[in-house]
Amino acid sequence: MAPPPPPTAAERGHEVRQRLLRAGAELITERGWSAVSTRAVAERAEVGQGLVHYHFASLGALLRQAALGAVEALLHELTVLLKAAATPQEALERILSTLDAYSGTDTTSLLFTETYLAATRDEELKSGLARLLTGAREELAGHLRVQRVRQPQETAAVLMAAVDGLMLHRPVSPSLSSAAVGPVLRRLLIGTNSGGETA
Amino acid sequence: MAPPPPPTAAERGHEVRQRLLRAGAELITERGWSAVSTRAVAERAEVGQGLVHYHFASLGALLRQAALGAVEALLHELTVLLKAAATPQEALERILSTLDAYSGTDTTSLLFTETYLAATRDEELKSGLARLLTGAREELAGHLRVQRVRQPQETAAVLMAAVDGLMLHRPVSPSLSSAAVGPVLRRLLIGTNSGGETA
DNA sequence: GTTCGCCTTGGTCAATTGCCCAAGGCGAAC
DNA sequence: GTTCGCCTTGGGCAATTGACCAAGGCGAAC
């Protein structure tokens, strides 16, 4: 086999930027948004602390980009999962299974909440997050609409909020397994247009 | 009228402690849990900075007590509101009206989320929060059970998580008014034991 | 008036913070 | 070999941090 060509300086730089973003996302969930320091990010990424401000305008810019990137990746993953579902019940099953996977102490579930809170105090972050969430919500709403769930827009919004809320409550209330809350959440999807109720 | 007696030193101390706690709760929502400093709390409470560590063992202890106190007060307020409701629908109406009142930029709604996140990293805070929430959830579940809602425990948990999630999403998605999500949330309460569905 | 207990102040310390910068490394182009 | 561009390092700075402390205020008890 031919040995891989040595990476150029620009390629190495790009790789370091990715490491910094990943380290930033990890530390946001571990310590909380406002407790992440430049030196901690650099150490986690195993680079000198000066690199943070070489690759990013500020620590805030790094955290913004790290958080939005992680949120976008997870939303994309969920959307793909959703597209393969035939019924709204099956879609819910898939969403709930991810709820079990993210136990509340993992890397990604707390990141959502941290990003929501940080968006309250950062206009740029708020608009970026709103863009991502609107896209995901419309994707989910379209899915629900095709399957004749009533008020698809509002149902999608409530469903996403409920899942986020459950993720938030889980570490404090470990009884919130998908098996426990699944039957209740399923009520959100009953009463389709093809069903009995018309009001 | 008799002039009020001058407060004793102990009474003044107690009043200062209350001011510090209120300042701490305010600053948690404004800046985020880990961005609250002793000097900021002291300045907001209009006392010298040394008083913080005179009245509290540490800044963390102050924030814990401030957050748990605020959460307890709000949960108590909601519980009282709930007791006056005759039907689960009316109870939901009352909960939703509080959702409109707390717009997401107010003092108390973000405090819940901040406390949840901080509890992830503070065992003492977690157990205190779990105690308060279990009490409130059982209160709500009992209310739902009397009114023949199925799976009252799980429904109460999902309802509380959904409300918290909606509060969290609201600043980013201003369309989440109670009028928009109310009809959807109401589905969580349909299908009582006295209703038609039996499965 | 003196003593006592509690509260209150502002100064101080070591540690940490975000950000900046001079200096150097290193492969590519020529 | 030299130059160039990009990446990388570690030190340094001013500001802020949590915590501690000596000193003083002040009403109550005696």
UniProtKB/TrEMBL annotation, chains A, B:
Pfam families in the record: TetR_C_31, TetR_N
Name of the molecule in the record: TetR/AcrR family transcriptional regulator
Keywords: DNA-binding, Transcription, Transcription regulation
DNA-binding region residue numbers: 37-56
UniProt cross-references to InterPro entries, sorted A to Z: Homeodomain-like_sf, HTH-type_TetR-like_transc_reg, HTH_TetR, Tet_transcr_reg_TetR-rel_C_sf, TetR_C_31
Residue intervals of the HTH tetR-type domain: 14-74
Lineage, highest ranks first: Bacteria, Bacillati, Actinomycetota, Actinomycetes, Kitasatosporales
Presence of the UniProt keyword Transcription regulation in the record: yes
